[in-house]
Specification:
This protein is an alpha/beta fold. Helix content is about 40%, strand content about 5%. The strands form 5 sheets. The chain has a 5-stranded parallel sheet, with helices on both faces. Strand 3 and strand 4 form a beta hairpin.
C-alpha cells in the first residue's frame, strides 16, 4: 500500500494541546493508602540475592544456524530498532508524542455518525468532497478499489506509485542492479515476508528488482508459465508450432510465488446500479467486481500440483498466497513431495487459520528430522501468515482478525495467548523462528487487536517461561522449592497481566494461580487437547473444574471453532479439501495426481483405489473427477444463497411497506411483524454463509476484541481526560468550548 496518501486524521488537533500522556500515567508518589507502590504478592518473601543472578536480566537475542558460517561458529544478532508493536513503531505520530495504532485502524465509511472518521456536511456533490474524504472512500474498499498501486505482491498496476520520490544512495542502486548480490539478499529475506515487503517499499527500483527475481504464477488467469506441463507435453507444443525450442526449455525459478492477481478496476464499467448514499456521493461499498468461479479456482489450484509432480527437484523457495483449497494435508503433501525445498511460505490461505499453526510446525519439524536421517542437509524453513479475517466490506461490525465475527462465546485475546503458550515452546524445540520481527507470523500477531502496546510484553513473558523450563536459570531438579515457586509465580503473573493489558486485582490473580489450601503452591490445569499446564485464567470457570478428559483451554476451544465456523462457506470448503486428500491418507502429490506407481522401500508395488485412473481419462484420476463435482455442487449452493439474499431483502421491504399501511390493532400487522423478524433472522444466516455478514452478539456478551472497539475506548478516554465531555448529571454532555477549539485542525 502507498502510505504517503493515507488520510489519517491528526489526533492532536482533535483533542487540543493538552499532554494526553499525563492521563495514562500512574503517580510516582502515592497519594493515599500506598497507591502506586508495588506490593509483594508471594506468600513468603525471598531474601535479597536468593534468585539466580540470570533471572529477570538480559536482552532478547535471536540465534540462527547459518550453513555458510565457519564450522563450529554460530551467529547471534539483535535488532537495534524498537520492536514492532511498541510506541516507536507505527503508532507514534510524527508531529507529537501522542500514541495511537494508526497503521492498522479500520477506516470506515466517511459520514457514518459515531465511527472512526471525520464528519462532513450534507447535502453535497462528489466533486465538492475534500481530497482526504475521497481517499477514504477509495481506501474503504481496499484492495477492491481503483488507483491502487499494486495488483499482487511485487506486481505494479497501471496507476503506479505516488509522485513523492526520495533520492537513494548509489550503493543501493548498484546492489539492486547486480543480479548475483541481489539474488543472495532475496534468498536470505524470502523466509521473512514482512522484511521482503519493507525492502520493496524502499524505492521503485527495489520493488521492480524483487518482482524480476521472483517468478509469479497467476492463479486467476491460470498462467503457470508452462511449469505445470510435462516434457512430453512441451515436445508436442514444439511439434505443433505453439512453442519454440527455447520456450520449451522450462525450469522452475528459485523464487516461486503462487497467488491470484487482481483485475484492475475500470471506472467505465462502473455499474449504474451503484447506490448513492444519504450525502449524495457514490457509495464505493456497492461497487461490483467480477469474481472468479469456484470451479475455475479449484482447477487452477491443480496446476500447482502438476508443476510439483513434473519438477519436484527444482523447487527451492515456494510462497503460497491466498491459494484456495489449501489445507494442512495439502501442505504436508507438498513438503513430502519437494525434497530440495528450503523455504515454504503459506500466507493468508483461506483454510489455513490460526488453529492450523501447531500442525504446520509439527509437519516442518518432522520433515527436517526425516531429512537429517536421510543425510539431506537442506533444512526447511516455514513462514506462516494465518488467515486474517477483515470482515465484510459492507455492514462490517468490526475487524477481529483471528476469527470472522464475535458470537460472544470466546475470549479471543486469552485464547490467542493460550495458543501461543503451546506454539512458542513447540517452535523453540523445533528450532523454527516465528516471532522475529519481519516474520509473517509476527506480522499476523501485530495486526490482532490486543490492548495497545501489549504484544511485545506478552511474547517476552512467554519466552521467559520457556527459558526457565529449559534450565536457563539453573537445573529445575536442583533449585530450592522456594526459588521455583517465586520464579514461576513471577513468570505467570507477567503473562496474565500482559494478556489483560492493564492492572489486575490481587484477589483475581490469587484465584487464578494459588491453591486455596496452600498459598505456597501454584495450581496449573492440563488441557486435554494441547496437553499444556496453564493457569485457570486461560479456562472458562465451568471448564477448569472438569476432569482432565473433559478440560479444554480457551486456545483449543478457538481452534475447534475455527474448524467449524460457517463464515464464507468455510465448513464446505474445508470438507472438500479434506475429502480431496482422503483426510490425510494421501501422503504426497504423486499419489493424488495418479502418477505411475513407483517401488516402495521394500521394493514392492502398491495400488490404492484413489490412485487408479478412470477409464478413458489421461488427465484426471477418479478422486479428482469426484472433487470437481464437489466443487461444482459448492458453487451452485453459493449462487443459490446469493439469490436468496436478494429474495429476502425484497420480502422484508414489501412487508415493511405493508405494515406501514396497517393500524396497531390489525391482526395482519402482527403477522407482518413476525414474518419480518423471521426473514431478518434467515437473512443474517445466509449473509454469513456467503461472507457478507457477521454475528452481532447480544449486549454485554461480546468477548472478542475488534480494532474499532479499541479505538473507540481510547478516544473515549481522551475525550474525558481533555475536557471534551463534562458530567452534568446522569449523562455526559459535550463541552462545546473545548470541542470547538479541538476541531479547528480539520
Amino acid at each position: 500500500m502507498d502510505y504517503t496518501q493515507v488520510p489519517y486524521p491528526r489526533l492532536p488537533m482533535q483533542v487540543g494541546d493538552v499532554d494526553q500522556r499525563l492521563y495514562f500515567l500512574e503517580p510516582a508518589v502515592p497519594s493515599h493508602d500506598q497507591v502506586g507502590q508495588p506490593k509483594p504478592f508471594p506468600a513468603h518473601q525471598t531474601p535479597s540475592g536468593h534468585y539466580p543472578a540470570s533471572f529477570g536480566k538480559g536482552a532478547r537475542l535471536y540465534e540462527t544456524d547459518d550453513t555458510e558460517a565457519a564450522p563450529g561458529s554460530r551467529i547471534f544478532f539483535a535488532r537495534r530498532s524498537q520492536d514492532q508493536g511498541t510506541i516507536h513503531h507505527g503508532i507514534q505520530r510524527g508531529n507529537s508524542e501522542v500514541y495511537e495504532l494508526a497503521k492498522f485502524n479500520k477506516l470506515l465509511h466517511p459520514g457514518d455518525d459515531g465511527k472512526n472518521t471525520n464528519l462532513y456536511q450534507a447535502p453535497g456533490d462528489w466533486k465538492d468532497m475534500p481530497e482526504d474524504l475521497k481517499n477514504q472512500l477509495k481506501l474503504k474498499t481496499w484492495p477492491l478499489s481503483f488507483e491502487v498501486p499494486t495488483l499482487a505482491p511485487f506486481t505494479q498496476s497501471r496507476f503506479g506509485f505516488s509522485k513523492t520520490q526520495a533520492k537513494q544512495s548509489t550503493a543501493l542502486g548498484a546492489v539492486a542492479k547486480t543480479p548475483e548480490i541481489f539474488n543472495m539478499i532475496v534468498s536470505h529475506l524470502i523466509g521473512s515476508w514482512e522484511d521482503m515487503s519493507n525492502l520493496s517499499r524502499t524505492c521503485q527500483l527495489l520493488f521492480k528488482g524483487i518482482g524480476i527475481a521472483v517468478t509469479h504464477c497467476d492463479l486467476k488467469s491460470a498462467n503457470f508459465l508452462d511449469i505445470d506441463k510435462s516434457e512430453q507435453e512441451l515436445r508436442w507444443l514444439v511439434i505443433n508450432g505453439q512453442r519454440t525450442r527455447e520456450q520449451a526449455n522450462v525450469e522452475v525459478c528459485p523464487f516461486l510465488l503462487v497467488s491470484p492477481i487482481r483485475r484492475e478496476f475500470n471506472e467505465s464499467k462502473l455499474s449504474s446500479r451503484n447506490r448513492i448514499n444519504e450525502h449524495g456521493y457514490i457509495d464505493t461499498r456497492e461497487m461490483l467486481f467480477e469474481e472468479p468461479r469456484i470451479t475455475d479456482t479449484f482447477m487452477q489450484n491443480l496446476k500447482l500440483y502438476r508443476a510439483i509432480l513434473h519438477r519436484p527437484d527444482q523447487f527451492r523457495h515456494l510462497l503460497l498466497q491466498r491459494v484456495p483449497f489449501t489445507n494442512i494435508s495439502a501442505v504436508k503433501a507438498i513438503i513430502r513431495s519437494l525434497p530440495n525445498l528450503k523455504t515454504l511460505g503459506v500466507h493468508n490461505c483461506d483454510l489455513m487459520t490460526f488453529g492450523d499453526t501447531s500442525m504446520l510446525l509439527k509437519a516442518v519439524r518432522d520433515a527436517n528430522l526425516y531429512r537429517f536421517k536421510k543425510d539431506n542437509k537442506t533444512r526447511l524453513d516455514v513462514d506462516f501468515y494465518p488467515r486474517y479475517f477483515q470482515g465484510p466490506i459492507l455492514g462490517s461490525l468490526g475487524c477481529f482478525g483471528v476469527i470472522p465475527h464475535d458470537e460472544g462465546k470466546l475470549d479471543i485475546p486469552r485464547a490467542v495467548v493460550a495458543g501461543l503458550l503451546h506454539l512458542i515452546p513447540l517452535a523453540v524445540s523445533a528450532n523454527i523462528d516465528i516471532l522475529t520481527p519481519g516474520k509473517a507470523f509476527r506480522r499476523f500477531l501485530d495486526k490482532l487487536p490486543f490492548p495497545i502496546d501489549t504484544l511485545p510484553y506478552i511474547l517476552d513473558a512467554i519466552l521467559n517461561l520457556v527459558d526457565y523450563r529449559k534450565g536457563r536459570h539453573g537445573d529445575l531438579a536442583t533449585l530450592m522449592p522456594e526459588q521455583k515457586h517465586d520464579m514461576e509465580m513471577t513468570l505467570w503473573i507477567d503473562i496474565i497481566v500482559a494478556t489483560n493489558g492493564g492492572p489486575i486485582r490481587e484477589k483475581v490473580l490469587k484465584a487464578a494461580l494459588v491453591s486455596r489450601l496452600d498459598d505456597k503452591r501454584i495450581i496449573l490445569y492440563r488441557c486435554k487437547d494441547c496437553e499444556e499446564d496453564i493457569p485457570k485464567w486461560f479456562y472458562t470457570d465451568t471448564c477448569a473444574d472438569r476432569r482432565h478428559e473433559f478440560r479444554v483451554c480457551h486456545g483449543c476451544q478457538m481452534v475447534a471453532y475455527l474448524a467449524q465456523h460457517h463464515y464464507n462457506m468455510h465448513v464446505r470448503k474445508r470438507e472438500i479439501a479434506d475429502r480431496l486428500w482422503d483426510y490425510g491418507q494421501i501422503a504426497d502429490v504423486r499419489t493424488l495426481m495418479g502418477a505411475p506407481l513407483i517401488a516402495n522401500n521394500d521394493q514392492t508395488l502398491a495400488a490404492t483405489m484413489h490412485n487408479l485412473v478412470a477409464p478413458g481419462s489421461r488427465q484426471l484420476n477418479h478422486r479428482l473427477r469426484l472433487a470437481k463435482a464437489w466443487v461444482r455442487h459448492l458453487q451452485n449452493h453459493y449462487y443459490q444463497d446469493q439469490a436468496r439474499i436478494v429474495e429476502l431483502e425484497k420480502r422484508i421491504a414489501d412487508m415493511k411497506a405493508l405494515a406501514g399501511t396497517l393500524t396497531g390493532n390489525d391482526p395482519e400487522l402482527w403477522d407482518a411483524e413476525d414474518e419480518i423478524k423471521a426473514a431478518k433472522k434467515e437473512l443474517v444466516l445466509v449473509r454469513i454463509r456467503v461472507g457478507r455478514g457477521q454475528w452481532d452478539p447480544r449486549a454485554g456478551s461480546g468477548l472478542a476484541v475488534s480494532w474499532q472497539r479499541l479505538i473507540d475506548e481510547y478516544r473515549g478516554k481522551i475525550a474525558v481526560a481533555t475536557g471534551q465531555l463534562v458530567n452534568s448529571g446522569p449523562y455526559s454532555l459535550m463541552n462545546k468550548d473545548s470541542f470547538a477549539r479541538d476541531c479547528t485542525g480539520w
